[in-house]
Amino acid sequence: MASDVNGGVELSVVIPTHEDAQCLELTLRSLCRQSLAPERFEVIVVRDGGDAGDYTDVADAGKGLNLRLIELAERQGRAAARNAGVRHATADLLLFLDSDSYATPELLARHLTHHLDTDRPAVLIGRRDELGLPHVNAALAGEPTIRVPNRRADGGGDLRFPAGYPAGEEWLQAGWMFAFTHNVSVSRELIDEVGGFDERFGLRWGLEDIELFYRVHKHLGLLERNFAYDDAAAAYHLPHHRNIDRNWQDFADNRGLAAEKDLVVEWEFVGMLEAYDSAERVVHYRASIADCLARSACRIGPAVELLPPYLPGHRVLWIGTGSDRTTLPEGALTFDYAAPAGPTNYHLIGMNPPIAPGSLDAVVSVDFWRYLRWDDLCQFINVAGALAGEVHLVSTGAALSGAVDPDASTFGYLTRVLRTAFGTAVSEVDGLGTVLRLRPHLPPAAATE
């Protein structure tokens, strides 16, 4: 994705547009009011097909800007439009905005200042508040800032933070989940290194941006702090027509595409919960995996050796670490977080794995189940019970950080609380530990060829 031209500007603002000239004009006018001197940035607008006649006033709206309009003859989708914008960018730093992102005066300066300090995280996420119809006149009048409510429940706020800005910064460990291209900046070099936006998302709505920033995060290191958030790098989301039903269907399709590319814990929770709740879980389970590996814990080898007499067959999903140090029977699958991901080994928690219902004889989790939050543990055993006739939760007694340390009373409680859905039994296996066996009252459907 080499640049077509060379330039001396410090910041390239990339904006895709499709049949929303009324929003784009307001956004360009807001960029004309930036505190950052106009010679220090350029604006690249990529018209993604559609009727060019609607854009006759765009040049006037952007008068005074270093503005270029790139036209794609046929609509190709947001990913392709942004890639085209990146190819035409001349600056080392990119700021992605949407055509309906009405910018506050300090927006560009905040992004540029962040990146001038090379010790700061590589990606800066800005705020974007929702504008309802009561606030449109303020934008039409060219007001630089607009007073809007801080919460979604009150008709405003940032859609990513329905209850207001989250406390602390731990959530930024999964900051890619919030890196929507309506207000996010990153170096051109990083975008090139990860291959740009995936154009296979096509015309569908959603996820092409956070999928890109997941790859940025993975490229820089999953346990590194690669994202920062600046509440003062703010924009407003102009109201426009939305087909919510179609958007959610597009989102579901795109989620499937993204999850297939990376069978990892990060994508298990995208779309299942609010973004912040999903990010919390990703951060928690990444830390759990790191703890497990640091302690050389959750070893499946002893279970592979000692559990077979207790299992109904050899088609088993083994969850833990150390699959390379034991001999697995034919038909076995693993969630081994210490081994490379591959066709039979996924780095998943087990919320919705790509495994056919009824295709396994058993699912065995060695200690890792102890890290799961209660809601996730319930989801895990429900899903596992649909995959196999039995679920075995093994506790070796190993010390783990942030995990339950179950004793006899804990297992007693579990047998009672889970027996509405499962037949339960607890046994002690010499050389291994305590095993809670769960057999679903409704047996899993047989897998079909």
TrEMBL record:
InterPro entries: Galactosyl_T_C, Glyco_trans_2-like, Glycosyltransf_2, Nucleotide-diphossugar_trans. Keywords: Transferase. GO terms for molecular function: transferase activity. It comes from the Bacteria. Residues 183-240 form the Galactosyltransferase C-terminal domain. The keyword Transferase applies. The keyword 4Fe-4S does not apply. Residues 12-130 form the Glycosyltransferase 2-like domain. Transmembrane segments: none annotated. This is Glycosyltransferase. It comes from Polymorphospora rubra.
